[in-house]
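Re: the request from the purification team.
They wanted to know what the chain is likely to look like in 3D before they choose a buffer screen. I agreed to run a prediction and write the result into the notebook, where they can find it.
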Amino acid sequence: MKVDIKLDSEYAEPLAVIYTSEITDEVTEAVRRLKETEPGIITGFSEDSAEILSPEDIYRIYSEGQKVLAVTDKGTFRLRMRLYQVEEKLSGMKFVRISNSEIINLNRTANFDLSFAGTIQVRMKNGETTFVSRRYVSVIKKILGI
């Protein structure tokens, strides 16, 4: 997508115009992001305190029972969102779903072990390991270019 910015003092508020021959997924995503007023802020809760979690500091987000948890270097935080809501909020960043109950930050992965039959083991930079469910193996292989 070609992007052009023009400065004009007549516009007090930014105006975005998209010229295209057809509506594509790329155009739809650009419009969605431009309309988005809420930043990708994730608030984590630990005991009685709330902390704003920077997406780049999150290793993985997973559901366990009825809880959604985010793992960072500072610890594990409970999120008051559903996993799909977190996924939507982090869309466009380097997060990818690896199972129905887990999302990982690709920038926080150390390696992918393909030696397991039918699945992939993911080793995070903090030493934790997790697995890609069979349903998501083809998606991960596509992302990795395998």
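For the purification team: The chain has a mean pLDDT of 89.
Please add any questions underneath this entry.
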